[in-house]
Design a protein that fits this description.
The chain is α+β, with helices and mostly antiparallel strands and 148 residues long. The model has no long low-confidence stretch (mean pLDDT 94). The chain starts with a helix and ends in a 10-residue tail after the last strand. The radius of gyration is 15 Å and the shape is globular. It contains three helices and six strands. Strands 5-4-3-2-1-6 form a six-stranded mixed β-sheet, covered by helices on one side. The protein is 26% helix and 24% strand. The longest helix is centred in the first third of the chain and has 17 residues.
């Protein structure tokens, strides 16, 4: 059986190469910033999502990277109350906000770094050490992973 890392690479490979590369690079950037976070993989109907969490349950996640056929998104799972002076956050739900990443270097933009800092300040820090990569769910039925 393949390792979770190999499974994630195979899941990402179903996307256009540029989307796969951007999504995987974004995961690595967040991992470098939060090495102790659990990385929870959900290969769902609409998207491939990797949540960063304090534990191994979905409710423990605080941010995620999601791959879509035409873009990669950074989700703030408790983003509604974040201070966002540049108006980057999109969404009007009860809790979640998001930013589409046009480039992995967007994660280094001061406004996005400030949003991530706020999230990390709101939550207990992720555990120390290397956080695990866990395959949580793979949907049997999925939308096409490449644009039609």
């Amino acid at each position: 059986m393949d390792t979770p890392q190999e499974q994630l690479a195979a899941m990402a490979a179903r996307y256009e190469p540029a989307i796969a590369a951007r999504g995987l690079a974004a995961i690595e950037r967040l991992r470098a910033r939060m090495p102790g976070a659990h990385r929870l993989i959900y290969d769902n109907y609409n998207a491939l999502a990797v949540g960063f969490a304090h534990g191994d349950r979905a409710k423990d996640a605080f941010v995620s990277i999601a791959f879509y056929p035409r873009w990669v998104t950074l989700f703030f799972l408790y983003g509604k109350g974040l201070d966002d002076p540049e108006g980057l956050l999109k969404g009007d739900g009860a809790r979640v906000r998001h930013v589409v990443l046009d480039d992995v270097d967007d994660l280094e933009r001061p406004a996005i770094v400030a949003l991530l800092d706020q999230v990390l300040d709101q939550k207990d820090p992720p555990p120390l050490g290397e956080g695990p990569l866990i395959i949580k769910a793979v949907s049997e039925k999925q939308r096409p992973r490449r644009p039609g």
